[in-house]
Amino acid sequence: MSIFLVQILTGLAYGMLLFMIAAGLSIIFGLLNVINLAHGALFLIGGYVTLSLVNNYLNFWLSLLVAIVVMALLSVIIERFLLDKMYGQEFEQVLLTFGLMFFLADVAKWIWGTSPQSIPVPDYLASSFSVGVVSFPVYRVFVVLVGCLVAVVMWYLETKTRIGAVIRAGVDDREMLGALGINFKVAFTGVFAFGAALAGLAGGLGGPILGLYTGMEGDILILSLVVVVIGGLGTWKGSFVGAILVGMADTFGQMWFPSFSMAIIFIIMGLVLLIKPSGLFGKGVGA
Amino acid sequence: MNRWIWPVVIIGIIVLLPLVLTTYGMQLATEIFIMSIFVLSLGFIIGYVGLVSLGHAAFFGIGAYTVALLANVTTNTYVLILAAIILAGILAFLTGWLFVRTSGAYFLMITLAFNQVVYTVFFKWKDVTGGADGMTVRAQLDLGFGPVQSQLALYYIMAFSMLLCYFLLRRYIAAPLGKATLGVKENEDRMKALGYPIRSYKLIAYTVAGAMAGFAGSLYAFFNRFVSPEVASWFFSGEALVMSIIGGVGTLFGPPIGAGLFVILQNYISTFTARWPMVMGAIFIVFVLYSRGGIAHLLKRLWNRLFTKEEKLAEPAKVAEESKTEGGQA
């Protein structure tokens, strides 16, 4: 029973990491109509930047913050100088992010090497606390809390602020937004940077749990795509539910059927597709 | 008369090429023919059906592993290759039935996820597939005249297979079936309104492409005599996508050009730097930014500028229009 509870926490923490990645992917798609295939590479580089700073005796929190800022800046460059040249041609934009994934992942391999690494966390997060006979690792609880905080922030931004209103309007009707005199290109850049910053945050936070290794960008990308397919594209709420589902399924799948946990996730995805092709919270097919 | 020039020239080059190639060059050319079949099948569903798959290596892997695994039971080349084609085709049909309900970004993501599942099965099922270590292929290519030993024979067999696949796809596209499929790609709603079963057209094309990728995989197993899970990895799918885009989608001669350029560059650049993925990513980005339609369209334009004066004006407009319709896909 105690193992069961700890596994639930593990699954939740994993799910929250997936949520942070997939939510960025999903809102970028919602506004820009582009699947950012370089998102897994952004996650990986975010993790590596955090690792390098922590290894050079920088505070864990400060390292995380720097990683987030670096990823946001990098994504602004990507959006301004590459994606911007191809507006209106979403297929070409997806291909651009695909080429970027190869490029960025190889740059990461070049700088940080191929051996798997892990980010050390501050002592007070590395301990565990016990409730009755069960002992929970503090760090995973912390990740779950951060994930929930991100969800609350996104909810607030979306529904209570002017920025959120502009983005919601942009998702519904981009031309109308332009006609109203709002510079939606700034919104594009902002949303792209926000998504990348989330990926960087997830990379820094996930490093201590998942580790960082060559080829991780693909694993992360695929899992977050599955989350997005299950939850529905363009909605972060769908990503939240989908991520918890996938996190749980993967954690318990690894416990009960170690060889076929990926197959279980895939079966869930197939079922969702059969019943509702646009995902649990999605609007229209392929929209 | 004019329409026979190109086929004759191409076949002539392929037949005469062994005269000038080194042993290494022959090896490379044979590999390019196999890759060409694979990339042809992918370029076909991208360019003529509008299904951008990022999981095509799943079928290549299934073809390769079918040969490797069944070789323990029989070594008959025809049976092995046929089994690979049928198995890959059946799997493409079953998964395609589910996948073609979606389009654009969803299709891309789902095929990628499916690819990862197939990879994981080959990777984790150690008792049968040997896991990450891969497995040697016990069967040898034998068309009924004894095992094929010489490199020259292997070269010609693969070249013939590629030309056969090219020819089959050409017939497919020219047939009413192919024309309707292209119609679905260009304007799905209109075809639906006209009463065409659009999903069936997509599914048939997807199944054919899957079976053809399985065929390429089976040839690869005979060529390489060794298979590992890498042949079914999403990275390989991605490489195939890069090859078809560089070569040019929307044509059938683009994919083989893309495959050839890719394999040659990969081998050449890998000899002096380990940063091949970086170089490949950069080349790919440059192609997407500056050359819509890939090398095939560049060649077409060059050809028209040099030799046909009348089409000089018509061509850029056509290319612009094509890239516009491609843009609406994702």
Q: What report would you give on this structure?
A:
The complex is a heterodimer of chains A (287) and B (330). With 287 residues, chain A is mainly α. Chain A has 12 helices and 2 strands. The N and C termini of chain A lie far apart (43 Å). The model of chain A has no long low-confidence stretch (mean pLDDT 87). Chain B has helices at 2-16, 23-49, 57-70, 77-99, 104-124, 126-129, 151-174, 176-186, 188-193, 198-224, 234-247, 254-270, 276-290, 294-307, 311-327, and strands at residues 135-136, 226-227. In chain B, helix 7 crosses helix 8 (176-186) and helix 11 (234-247) packs across helix 12 (254-270). Chain B is built from 15 helices and 2 strands. Chain B folds into 2 domains: 2-292, ABC transporter involved in vitamin B12 uptake, BtuC (Orthogonal Bundle); 298-330, no CATH class. With 330 residues, chain B is mostly helical. The termini of chain B are far apart. Chain B has a two-stranded antiparallel sheet. The interface between A and B is large, with 49 and 45 residues.
What is the rounded distance between the termini of chain B?
A: 40 Å
Could you tell me the number of beta strands of chain A? Answer: 2
Reading off the top of the CATH hierarchy, the class of the largest domain in chain B is best stated as Mainly Alpha
Structural class of chain B: mainly alpha
Biggest protein-protein contact in the assembly: A-B, 49 and 45 residues
The CATH architecture designation of the largest domain in chain B is Orthogonal Bundle
Count of domain modules of chain B:
2
Q: What is the gyration radius of chain A calculated from CA atoms?
A: 19 Å
- For the secondary structure, the number of strands of chain B is 2
Average of per-residue pLDDT values of chain A = 87
Q: How big is the Rg of chain B?
A: 20 Å
Can you give the mean pLDDT of chain B? Answer: 87
Number of helices of chain A: 12
Write out the strand line-up for the largest beta sheet of chain A, numbering strands in chain order: 1-2
Q: Work out the helix count of chain B.
A: 15
Query: What is CATH's topology name of the largest domain in chain B?
Result: ABC transporter involved in vitamin B12 uptake, BtuC
